[in-house]
Write a structure and sequence with these properties.
homodimer, alpha/beta, Creatine Amidinohydrolase, Chain A, domain 1, 11 helices, hydrolase (chains A, B), hydrolase activity (chains A, B)
């Protein structure tokens, strides 16, 4: 069986976007590279690697890169040898542009896979060029960076920053389609979650049902793993957002924050809701109402042409009159993602972010409130449209009270 | 309510180990720091942060550190302001040693949280010392490194390497207890997985059941999230280990590799099995038998005093006589872990690793075989004992054939 026929067999399963979409993405990235004076860019962020090639595997725990060079048609995938078949089955790349490094490079003290990457860059004649790396990307380590520089003494380096992330900020209709699928799954998972928070029930038993709903999806399409697992701080722990779960039980007279996502083919939709078991304190009820009002004000403001900080300002004005003050950002760009974050690290809804909203940008609007010993989260993932931010999910938005 | 009483309320839920165990860990780490000429060490690996303080939250998507200084009793936790309460509820640290940086440091172009960390180091008078950072840890970025150095011009820096990981290599009885719990959960999850692989069934539906079993745990203890999601390459994709799932169906006449873990309070046990739907090819049946023979030979060799490479050699000798050759490592140290990896990045079972095995070390022994268009994985997590490697799980080891 030839490699070509093997690839043809695998393609219906893993290849999500057509060739034209990948060509469009690569052209947009190369355009920005040329503008920034970059000849060759090393992409380490797994979401960026997926965006440019379709590569999808849980192999980012070892160093790997996609290299984009202005003078080469395809991105070049370099990863661990055992993952090279994964690149064959999930990407649109020809065999010459998929390279696996030998296993003795993995997790050693004296040798690093980025040395192999430097040698391949040299072999292709790119070693004297203007190279860029993603200096704040997950999974590109300091040791990797030093090994790369040592292997490429004649190159000029600069920080690529979040160049690919910025290209990803405006979604294609195909991407929006996947996020709408994720939203359908998320509605189901969040309903499961709200029903599952019951006095005396173990947190882990409820999370088991949530994760099952996230992955089962709908009869039409399944769910993917999410870039962050369900977070559900409960009781006093609701004063902080990022705690997960234990096998303790939910208790009457306590709030539980549920921050969940769902994903379809790596594209995420996220949402937070807060459940209260019993009669909630008046302050919590009032705060939930103010948050809902501020959230709607932000959605209304999220039109093309508005800036990120203007959206935050709409929230701030609507909530300030009720005495609610929040220091942290109220949202961020969301889309294709791998652990540990479903945010895209580009736009934030906060003062000072003057990025102008465009149609088909997508945000997770999450104005979480965390006090000394309690908290509340209500959030929506929205699409920027001419009519304002369109929430992708359709669940009721208030505090979920179970008497 | 005073912070002390709040902390007392939360402690039964999140605090897994007693104070004496944390004291022992910290002393062991400080001993190695002194031997390596390190005054102050910045720990970024979430598993290392947990090991030294108990901190447990999905906040590692933003920069955070635990600082260990020879001249200071406690580790110092620094993270995002909204996560500081998480440190209060999950760690044994006093309030003075928990610091949150303001939200405007998060995901900006012109400022980085490591600048805040550098300022705190200066405030504590550690800025002229011999500092060490984990240069190959996940979640410590190149930009973070450069911000830290810029903020500490009078410090001397070196690579801490995997200093804390090496201290973690030998587990306490309490840690082994958590891994045995994980093993009980994993047996249940793997049985669910093997039963769930059926012709015509969607992969996502089977994974939904697996993840539910992983998190539900047993009636006595619940499951935690695993550092890697279930991996189940199927059909031609079984030629590579790290693919996850789609909503395609399992097919008769195809193999599916199931590589799963379970976790209890961040402590992992991992296992791989291979299911074949129908009558498997003779080559696959024979290979499975050879793998089982080699795996047992490696287990028998895994006694205190043996080296990692001797364990691998036992596998190599047992399988070579059947013509099976494998280039990649056959196992690695496993334990407390966060995404993206349940391996500890210290010992590998491969030629050249001369680390001597000690009682209460734990390994995932996974001699995966990946060919051009098929593969097979059978693995065990084992504990080093005087009688050899003791598998923590008790499931049958051969190819799982469903006719």
């Amino acid at each position: 069986m030839s490699p070509t026929s093997l690839a043809d067999r695998a393609s219906p399963t893993w290849r999500v976007f057509d060739r034209a979409e990948f060509d469009h993405r690569l052209a947009a990235v190369k355009y920005r590279m040329a503008a920034d004076g970059i000849d060759v860019m090393l992409v380490s962020d797994p979401a960026n690697m997926n965006y440019l090639t379709g590569y999808d595997g849980w192999s980012f725990y070892v160093p790997q890169v996609v290299i984009v060079a202005l003078d080469h048609d395809n991105p070049v995938w370099i990863g661990r040898h055992m993952d090279a078949n994964g690149a064959r089955w999930t990407t649109v790349l020809p065999p010459d542009d998929i390279l696996g490094y030998p296993d003795h490079y993995v997790q050693q003290r004296h040798i690093h896979p980025m040395t192999f990457v430097a040698e391949e860059i040299t072999r292709r004649g790119w070693h004297k060029g203007r190279l860029a790396v993603e200096m704040d990307a997950y999974y590109f380590s300091v040791q990797g960076w030093e090994s790369l520089r040592a292997g490429l003494p004649n190159a000029t380096f600069k920080d690529a920053g979040h160049l690919v992330n910025w290209v990803r900020a405006v979604k294609s209709d195909a991407e929006i389609g996947l996020m709408r699928r994720a939203a359908r799954i998320l509605e189901s998972a969040m309903q499961t979650a709200c029903e599952g928070v019951e006095p005396g029930r173990r947190q882990c038993d409820t999370v088991a049902e949530i994760m099952s709903a996230q992955v089962r999806g709908t009869p039409e399409f399944g769910g993917d793993y999410t870039a962050i697992v369900p977070m559900l701080p409960t009781g006093i722990c609701s004063s902080t957002p990022h705690l997960t779960w234990t096998d303790e039980t939910f208790k009457a007279g306590e709030a539980t924050i549920l921050e969940l996502a769902a994903a379809n083919r790596r594209y995420h939709c996220a949402m937070a809701r807060t459940v209260y078991l019993g009669k909630p304190p008046a302050l919590m009820v009032d705060t939930a109402e103010v948050v809902c009002e501020g959230l709607q004000a932000a959605l209304d403001a999220a039109r093309p042409g508005a800036t990120c900080e203007e959206v935050e300002h709409a929230w701030r004005e609507a909530t300030r009159r009720h005495g609610l003050v929040k220091e942290s950002r109220i949202g961020y760009s969301i889309g294709c993602a791998y652990p540990p974050d479903w945010g895209e690290h580009t736009m934030s809804l906060r003062p000072g972010d003057t990025t102008v909203l465009q149609p088909n940008m997508t945000f997770h609007l999450i104005p979480g409130i965390w006090m000394e010993d309690w908290g509340i989260e209500l959030s929506e993932t929205f699409l920027v449209t001419e009519r304002g931010g369109e929430p992708l999910c359709g669940l009721p938005r208030g505090l979920y009270v179970k008497q």
